[in-house]
Amino acid sequence: MDRTPRPGDFYRHFKDKMYQVITVAVHSETGEEMVVYQALYGTFGTYVRPLPMFISEVDHEKYPEAMQKYRFERVVMDSEQPAAKGCPQKPEKEDEENLVGSNQSQADLPSARCYHENKNLLAFLDAGTYHEKLEVLEERKDRFSAEELLAICEIMEIGRPDSEPEEKYYAVKRYLELQNKYEGSRLR
């Protein structure tokens, strides 16, 4: 199975943070393939890591509490609920095919993920700037599910997980307004 990330793919790090792959680049001096990816939380920082390290397995001796097999595992954002735990799962196509004639349940598959519709969350994540994210948030105010708002808060590391959806919405809105204010006034 080819685990090479593609531009636009979403990944969950084994420490439960979300990232989006920008591209796989080649180091100009060494020829080494490097994954360029962006955080989907906080200040949305951009990072680079050697491809073999990006697709490597987690060192379970160093991180015995890690639940994932790989350092970064691909997430299908238009059908995944990123932060939800214990929800119904649907396997990826290749895993579904491997289930035929086996006694293994879908929940036993390491790549099986929660399966939901998250079009509002996807639109929010696809927005490039704080201003665009704020526009998506305001345009879809009444359409965001509680799970989507929780995912956004966790991705951006704001709000309280136990707060009401309306509180989460306003926490995200205030954060984006503040970021937009300072991003728009910076000297470029």
SSE layout:
Elements: E1 10-13, E2 18-26, E3 33-39, E4 46-50, H1 51-54, E5 72-75, E6 89-90, H2 93-99, E7 113-114, H3 119-126, H4 130-139, H5 146-156, H6 165-185
Antiparallel strand pairs: 1-2, 1-5, 2-3, 3-4, 6-7
Helix pairs in contact: 3-4, 4-6, 5-6
Observed structural traits:
single chain, 188 residues, alpha+beta, SH3 type barrels, 2 domains, 5-stranded antiparallel β-sheet, two-stranded antiparallel ribbon, 6 helices, 32% helix, 18% strand
Low-confidence stretches: 79-116
Strand order in the largest sheet: 4-3-2-1-5
Helix proportion range: 25-40%
State the separation between the terminal residues, measured CA to CA. Answer: 43 Å
User: Can you tell me the CATH topology of the largest domain?
Assistant: SH3 type barrels
Order of helices and strands: EEEEHEEHEHHHH
Relative strand content = 15-25%
Total number of domains: 2
Strands, count: 7
The CATH architecture name of the largest domain reads: Roll
Total number of helical segments? Answer: 6
**SS class:** alpha+beta
